[in-house]
Amino acid sequence: MNDCYILDGHHTPVRVPMRRWVAWWQDMAHRRVAATQVTPQVHVSTIFLGLDHRHWGAHGPPILFETMVFGGPLDQEQERYGTWEEAAAGHTAMVARVRVALGAWPPAPPGSLCEACLDAPAVVLAPAPWGGARGVCAACAPDAEEPA
Ligand SMILES: [Zn+2]
């Protein structure tokens, strides 16, 4: 039997008895980390799983969050994480990967630096706020806007 977890008010997983978990679980709003409709056909969803998905007696912190792609060239692609922060960053990175795979955003030139944070390699050429495009890292790629 997997261990059951809920999230406290600070997005921290807390292990609870099954009965309490079931009541908490009913409300999807508790569990959604992020959801992005990339195109009308392609959706990226990141949720709190609530059950430890670390398998086969592997040691380490529980795996409780998952990003999943629905539709498009990366359909059913998934990533799993141990913390809300990792899941939120992973969601943004997955949306950027989907946009590259769709050809919506071209990949950034190899070796170029993120023009937003100047602190990480650029992965995609995303629409710039002032028009045109700029190379950004996955964390800086805008999340909610439609590709230009
Ligand atoms: Zn950046």
Question: What do these coordinates show?
Answer:
This protein has helices spanning 18-25, 84-102; strands at residues 5-7, 13-15, 32-39, 42-48, 65-70, 78-81, 124-127, 133-136. By secondary structure, it is of the alpha+beta class. The chain has two domains: 5-104, no CATH class; 106-148. The strands form three sheets. It has a four-stranded antiparallel β-sheet with strand order 3-4-5-6, with helices on one face. The chain is elongated, with a radius of gyration of 17 Å. 26% of the residues are buried. Bound molecules: zinc ion (ZN). Residues 114, 116-117, 119-120, 136-137, 139-140 line the site of zinc ion. The site of zinc ion (ZN) has 9 residues, from loops.
